[in-house]
Each structure stands twice: as structure tokens, then as C-alpha cells.
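Hey, I was hoping to borrow your eyes for a little while. I've been staring at a protein lately and its backbone has me curious. You're getting the sequence in one-letter code plus the fold written as C-alpha cells. Would you mind checking whether the C-alpha cells look sensible for this chain? Here's the protein in full, and shout if anything looks odd to you:
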Amino acid sequence: MNQSFTEVHILPSYAKGFTFMWEISQGFSDPLPWAFRVEEGPTAEGPWSVISPPVLNMFAWVETTKRIVNKDLVLFFRVTLTTPKGTYYSHIKTPYGDLGRREYLLVRDIMRREVLQQDTLSGIQGRLWIRSTSGARCTNCVDPITGDNVSSNCRECLGTGRVPPYHGPYTVWMTFSPTNRDTEQKPDGTGTQQIYVWNIRLIGFPYAKDQDIAIDIATDKRYVIDGVQHLTEIRRIPVVQNLRARELPVSDPAYRLGTGLEDEDCVLP
């Protein structure tokens, strides 16, 4: 185990086997690329076999092979991280460390029903970019005196202060609410302004947080998340999420996400 990993979650995939998600310490600053692999072993001591392809600069992996879940299933998993500086190992996790077998099957069925409804009636295909909280600090827009990142339009970190600024994208089903109007203070403090906000419903994968970016694939509109509510939880595990979002102007740096523009090495393809 290494202090680079802070969390490893194993949750059901609504269609196949397991969903693996992990978190990295905010102080971890090895240079990119980061290559993650999920490993499986029959005991906590191994031997370990790799079950995932290299997962580059992303913090989740979903199995594509269906697993038969039964009471006799005993498995152990860990995640390895390889960077230009070395290899790191997460703590070892069993499939039911977060949820017991009964709750695991219940979560899987709730997610399956949710995605089925979105696929057939109410949903759209979207992408979610998760704002980085770990990784190297941006050196392009740093204030030499305070050490703070000062540019919201930095070509390296897109205003996040981290390189890479986001990880993803994660393709998910989303259900948008009708447009709502809200009022907020103007950035210059001269009064209030009316903004348009939406609620976006999706299953609990991946875990979303404030300042993440949601994308409507059909229109390529970008939305920033400024509130997350867990509509359904089992054993404190988010099963269905509701995201409060507002649309970003096309001048926002978030519109460079996924474009692979030249000189923007931190923007993932």
C-alpha cells in the first residue's frame, strides 16, 4: 500500500460485473502519464493477475464481462498506479467491503432500472469531466509571491490550478429537468443577475462534485456543477445523484475539454 491512494470503491455495474473507482491523495504530484490497472487475487497475499487494460489518467474502470455473484464468491482486488517515477499500490479490497451481498444486488437492480428508463424514455447520452484535486500544481499561471494560481483562462490548467485540470470523460446517461431560473450576485458586486439552471439526474457513477463539467453530447453544451444531492443511498453509498448545473458561455475554458487543441497538453483526448 502507498499513501498515493486514499480510497478504493467497488460497486456493481448495472449491466456486467464490478465498477471500480479510486481516489488519489491531493498531495500526490508525480508527472503524467498515470497508468492504472485493476488486479485480482484469490487471497489478500495474491498471486495477483491484471484484469483491466491500462486506464490512463482516469479514476474508474467498469468490467465488460458479466460476473455471477453468489455467497461463495471470495475475491480480493487492488489498484496499481504506474508513473514515470514509480509504481504504487492501493490497499486491498473485497467486493463487499462497501456493500453486503444483499445490498450489492439491490443497488445493481436500482441502477439497471434507472438506466433502462433513461435509455427508453427520459435520458440523453452525456459526458462527465471530473475536476482534478490531485496532480502537479500548474506553473504557468502561479503568482510568484503568494503561490496561488491566478488565471481563470490558463492554457495549462484551465483555471483549476492542477495539471491535468480534469480527468475523464466518463460517458453516462443523464436526465435534464426543465429549465429553471435563479438569481445570483454579479461577479463585480454591482447587483444581481438572472441565470438558468438545470437539475441533472444520473446513477452513482462516477461520484460527482462541485465544479465538475457535464456535457450534452448532442449539442456539445457545457454545464458546471454547483450542487450535488444524493437522491438514493444504500449504506451511505450514492445510488442515484441529482446535480444542480448552469450552462457555461462558449468562451469558458471548459469548451476546450476533449478538443486536443495544440499546445494544451493537459487537455485529454
